[in-house]
Write a structure and sequence with these properties.
Elements lengths: L1 H36 L1 H23 L2 H12 L3 H38 L5 H26 L3 H25 L2 H22 L19 H31 L2 H35 L4 H28 L1 H8 L8 H7 L2 H17 L3 H53 L6 H22 L1 H4 L1
Helix pairs in contact: 1-2, 1-6, 1-9, 2-4, 2-5, 2-7, 2-8, 2-9, 3-4, 3-5, 3-8, 3-9, 4-5, 5-7, 6-7, 8-9, 8-14, 9-10, 9-12, 9-13, 10-13, 10-15, 12-14, 13-14
């Protein structure tokens, strides 16, 4: 069973590793050009608009991407039931996307005042509002593809969409003012990816219409998605609060530096988490009735991710300065203390994320919302306090403390409430990886002292 599981997971990772390599290359080119042509302010604008889009879309999106995958995976063996769920999912995605775009448009003056201290940037938020509708439609299609194991179609769509989005964005960054080119770039990416997903959708699942009064029949999926949406909204709201505080207390350039460090530590690591989760989450959902199988799957996933991340962290810390200058410019070296220390949080994130999948796979929306909301509040407090007193190094420490608390919270639910377990081999891997990563972080944190 373990060999077969390894083969399946590695196949999915193989598919998405090439995809993510192309997406990373597109992101590197885009960020590098923005850093050169628009400076840290341009990078900061990307962070602010991306966070606003994510927060609003999560609030109105009803968590349909996550809850939809669960429902599709649990019913994919019945074509009639699958067609019914897909139709409802697409209808909810359209409605939630329209609601999100309207909400962001209405809130654009307030968001401009929040982030920039005046109303002059309202029109930029109006432009990026279109991205919410496009993202919602994309999430609906991707949920259907992921739940039915159509990983190649997802890979093909996201790859082509990212490349086309980049091609359109480059001349915008070069010849259009940054205040306009940044929001237009979001829309360009949204149109490209949504179009590619619709072209690669499963033709065996027809595009059926759903009457408004029939939508209530999918209320269990929407209810679970609502809890997930509230939890994710709390996380993004906390990020918005921190970015707003950082921008007003320091500068937009400081936001850009933080966003660069956060991208390197959190977003690039999320690429692997997302690739593994593509196969892991539907599998967990389809087997959520069996504690024995969930124990095996979680233990296996933790062990596999630790084998991937431990050497990557080791190499990353050694070459961190060259990586920062390659991705950005030498001015961004101020984030080195942040990314060096925060790299250790990836080990904690590996353990906690794998266990957290059990909560969503079981459909326990209330528990997921409570843990994620509390974790978000703790995170923003740690970020503000430690950055205020210790700067970017403090942010690195905040990441470690943040994921430590989160891992403890998830562990209490995983072990205490659900009575699930992690194998001894996985526990040994966690201990060994923690020791190796801690040693390399301490070693390179003292580098400046030795010099």
């Amino acid at each position: 069973m373990r060999k077969g599981l390894n083969s399946k997971i590695l196949k999915v990772i193989g598919i998405f590793s090439g995809v993510e390599a192309i997406k990373i290359l597109c992101a590197i080119i885009k960020t590098k050009l923005v850093a050169i042509w628009l400076g840290a302010v341009g990078v900061g604008l990307f962070g602010i608009f991306a966070n606003a889009i994510d927060t609003i879309s999560i609030l109105t999106g009803l968590g349909l991407r996550q809850s939809g995958v669960r429902e599709v995976a649990r019913n994919r063996s019945c074509s009639e039931k699958l067609s019914y769920i897909a139709a409802h999912l697409r209808s909810w995605a359209l409605l939630s996307g329209i609601a999100g775009a309207l909400l962001l448009s209405i809130l654009s003056p307030a968001l401009s005042l929040w982030f920039f201290g005046n109303h002059s940037h309202w029109w930029q938020f109006m432009i990026v509002a279109g991205m919410i509708l496009l993202q919602s439609l994309s999430d609906g299609e991707m949920a259907i593809m992921q739940g039915t194991d159509r990983f190649k179609q997802i890979a093909r769509s996201t790859t082509s969409g990212s490349i086309i989005g980049l091609i359109i964005s480059i001349p915008l960054f070069r010849w259009v003012d940054g205040a306009l080119s940044v929001p237009l770039s979001f829309v360009a990416y949204g149109i490209s990816i949504t179009t590619a997903l619709l072209m690669n959708r499963d033709r065996n699942i027809p595009l059926r219409s759903v009457k408004p009064h029939d939508l209530k029949e999918s209320s269990p999926m929407v209810r679970l998605g609502g809890y997930i949406a509230l939890a994710t909204f709390a996380t993004n709201l906390a990020q918005m609060i921190f970015l707003s505080w950082l921008n007003r207390e320091n500068s937009t350039a400081t936001v850009g530096f933080y966003q660069a460090g956060n991208t390197i530590i959190v977003r690039y690591a999320s690429i692997i988490f997302s690739a593994v989760g593509m196969e892991f989450y539907p599998r967990m959902s389809a087997n959520s009735h069996s504690n024995h199988r969930m124990n095996i799957f979680v233990s296996h996933e933790i062990g596999l991710l630790l084998k991937i991340f431990t050497p990557m962290i080791f190499i990353f810390i050694i070459f961190r300065r060259w990586i920062v200058e390659l991705l950005y410019t030498p001015d961004f070296n101020v984030i080195l203390p942040f990314i060096t220390i925060a790299a250790g949080a990836i080990i904690l994130r590996t353990v906690s994320s794998c266990m957290a999948f059990a909560i969503v796979a079981r459909g326990d929306g209330k528990t997921y919302m409570a843990t994620e909301s509390l974790d978000a509040a703790i995170g923003v407090i740690l970020n503000i306090v430690l950055f205020k007193y210790y700067g970017f190094a403090g942010l690195g420490v905040a990441q470690i403390l943040w994921y430590t608390v989160y891992t403890v919270m998830i562990g209490i639910i995983y072990f205490g409430v659900y009575k699930l377990r992690i194998s001894r081999k996985a526990l040994q891997g966690i201990l060994l990886s923690s020791l190796i990563v801690s040693a390399i972080i301490i070693l390179y944190s003292l580098e400046s002292v030795w010099i």
